[in-house]
Each structure stands twice: as structure tokens, then as C-alpha cells.
């Protein structure tokens, strides 16, 4: 199974790769098309930085879909702010759907595009959730839009509008590229902050540990898939 994992920013990618190499997986650096990539042969995963924001993320995802091998799945892996009470920093959210929340049209009905997560991947990841001993795993919508959510009022509005558990930027861009190319897609995000006025500093403080949890879940899932 050839998996392309797109990670929004370099810091997230570095922590993800470091977590996997710390677990003993070998990395191979190369260039694919116009982008640098990291390949982990034991997991058959190729990672690349997708760029900040939905549009850049979609462009770079589509580029690797076009120039790479026949991918079986694309994962958007990164950090997120939580939109509901009771989910701790370090929890991992697997998106049952990615909801694009920031199309502010003024003609006709409001637009709130939803992109379902790949069914097989979701089913397999659900089977792994009970084995995560050091962090929580939750399944539900993730809101996607080019907006830093840094106050509790906006957080509440977004949750009410989308019913999402968490919010991040780039997922809808990756989902649109995959929908266009007919490739299954799933978004996996770790909670770094509470989408409040401490979000920026909390993101910096918690990114490393949170991405380690994301790495642990994905690696455990892929090793389970390959088990005889």
C-alpha cells in the first residue's frame, strides 16, 4: 500500500519524521517532481511538506499525485486546535469528514463543503484506537479553513456550524486534490491548543509531543495492516 502523507509545515514534518526514526524506522531523502520528500520504506510511506493554507496544500498535493506512483491513500497529518470541551492536548483526532468552513458567499445558501474520510482507513484506525495507551483517539469532523481560531466565541461558533471536534487550516485543500484525482483521503490531527488566546504559545509548546502521538497511531495502524 503506497501512502502519501502530506504535512502542512516543516516543523510538523520534522517532528513526525523524528518520531518515526526514534522508533527505528529508516528514512530516505529524495526529490519527487519539484518537491523534497522523505520515504520510510518499512512503512511504505512518503512524506512531503504541503505548505501553509488550503490552496498551497492543494497545489503541492496535486503535484505529487501527478508525478508520483499510483498512490493508494493520502493522509493529511498535522496539528489542530480543539473545538469542544473535554479533549486534552495530545489527543489525536481522525476526521470522519473534513468540513471547509471559510467560504463566505453572499449569494444563495451558505456553502459548507464536506469531504468524507476514506472508509477503509477509518475502519482500520478505529480498530487501533483502543490500543493507544498514552493518549486519546477520537473520531469526528475536522473543520478546515485559512483562519487562526484564537478566541472562545469564534471557537463556539465554528463548532455549532460544523459540529467539528477540531479546527485546522489545510485539510480541505488536500481533500479537494484527492477528490479531483480519485484517491482516498483521510485527515489525522493532534491537538496542540484550545483555540483560545493562548493558542499560539500552546502550539509551540505542545507540537513535538502531539506529533509524536500522531506518528505512533499511524505507525501502529500500518504495522497492523502488514501483519500476517
What does the model show?
- With 228 residues, the chain is of the alpha/beta class.
- It is 39% helix and 28% strand.
- It has 6 helices and 10 strands.
- It has a 5-stranded mixed barrel, surrounded by 4 helices.
- Helix 1 crosses helix 6 and helix 3 packs across helix 6.
Number of strands: 10
- Give the overall shape: globular
- Average per-residue pLDDT, rounded, comes to 95
Uncertain segments are none
Structural class: alpha/beta
SSE pattern? EHEEEHEEEHEHEHEH
- Order of strands, main sheet, comes to 5-9-8-6-10
State the helix count.
6
Helix content: 25-40%
Determine the strand fraction and express it as a percent band: 25-35%
Radius of gyration (CA) equals 16 Å
State the major sheet: 5 strands, mixed, barrel
Termini, distance in Å? 14 Å
How would you describe this structure in keywords?
alpha/beta, 6 helices, 10 strands, about 40% helix
In brief, what are we looking at here?
With 228 residues, the chain is α/β, with parallel strands linked by helices.
List the helices and strands and how they pair.
Elements: E1 3-7, H1 10-22, E2 28-32, E3 35-40, E4 45-49, H2 54-67, E5 73-82, E6 92-100, E7 114-116, H3 119-129, E8 137-144, H4 152-162, E9 166-168, H5 171-181, E10 185-193, H6 199-226
Parallel strand pairs: 1-4, 1-5, 5-10, 6-8, 8-9
Antiparallel strand pairs: 2-3, 3-4, 5-9, 6-7, 6-10
